[in-house]
Amino acid sequence: MSGGQKKSGGLQPRQLALATIPLSVLVLAIKLGAWRLTGSVALLSDALESIVNVVASIAAYVAIVYAAKPADHDHQFGHHKAEYISAVIEGVAIVVAALLIFKEAAVELFHPSMPDDIYLGLGVNIVASVINGIWAYVLIRAGRSLRSPALVADGLHIRTDVVTSVGVVIGLGVALATGYAIFDPLIALLVAAHILYAGYRLIVESVGGLMDVALTQEEEDAIRTAILENADGSSGVHDLRTRRAGSAAFIDFHLVVSEAMPVGEAHDICDRLEAAIKKAIPGASLAIHVEPEGVKAHGVRVRIH
């Protein structure tokens, strides 16, 4: 027995992802302006990451639109994993941005020069960072609430951009205060290292989703609680298995009932369980296998008292 649940407000992730594209372009334009004003390699590194942000935001939008498509003959469990692919692409893009920054900073390290119009450049860059910081918070919070890996990845990517900008401002401030221009490329190198680590983590987490990672322990505990509270009339449950695919959660288990129980009664128990579990785990799709007592069970059994 199976079922699915269509998330209400399904257009919201798409709208957020679409809005990210022009915002990313705006931030990129501001940061390129700051770099042109100063000639700072640190500000150039910040702008390079923003170029990646634009590409990543487009990839996230495409993935979210595709993931929202209903199940079809060739994709009978839906298209949810498309968001993980987008998140992997973003992780790779972050790594590429870090390598580009390493390249630019390494060249400047041996020929450091004090940036021009540094105060104006920093002011412009701070404006871009404020825009990024607010939008990163919105995307991460909404993405986690809506269980959208692509939105979360996009938000985390933008947040690393904010960290980059903060590091750049600090580095240029130190260079200005001490008169040592070498702080400009040194801070760029440190920022690149941070970005590289963020990209690595995002790739690892996204690949976990592609590999059918199980639901969290907290979610599985909620499932067991729902079963214990709504499986009256059965003898227990075993072989509980879960996996996460973007906003969807797939859950299956075996429900043990008396051999003498009518099919209709067993069906009613399944309906109660399905409703309770979907309430605990929004977006869940269930497969419940009903079996008579006496069949050898495998895995952890949830007994009903």
Structure notes:
- The protein has 305 residues and is an alpha+beta fold.
- The chain folds into two domains: 7-210, Cation efflux protein transmembrane domain (Alpha-lytic protease prodomain-like, Up-down Bundle); 217-303, Alpha-Beta Plaits (2-Layer Sandwich).
- 66% of the residues lie in helices and 11% in strands.
- The chain is built from eight helices and five strands; from the N terminus they run E-H-H-H-H-H-H-H-E-E-H-E-E.
- The protein has a five-stranded mixed β-sheet, with helices on one face.
- Helix 8 links the parallel strand 3 (248-257) and strand 4 (284-292).
- Helix 2 (41-67) runs antiparallel to helix 3 and helix 5 packs antiparallel against helix 6.
- The model is unreliable at 1-11 (pLDDT under 50).
Show the helix and strand layout:
Elements: E1 2-3, H1 11-38, H2 41-67, H3 82-109, H4 118-145, H5 149-178, H6 183-210, H7 217-230, E2 236-245, E3 248-257, H8 263-280, E4 284-292, E5 302-303
Parallel strand pairs: 3-4
Antiparallel strand pairs: 1-4, 2-3, 2-5
Helix pairs in contact: 1-2, 1-4, 2-3, 2-5, 2-6, 3-5, 3-6, 4-5, 5-6, 7-8
GO cellular component, one term: plasma membrane
Domain Cation efflux protein cytoplasmic: 216-293
InterPro entries: Cation_efflux, Cation_efflux_CTD, Cation_efflux_CTD_sf, Cation_efflux_TM, Cation_efflux_TMD_sf, CDF_Transporter
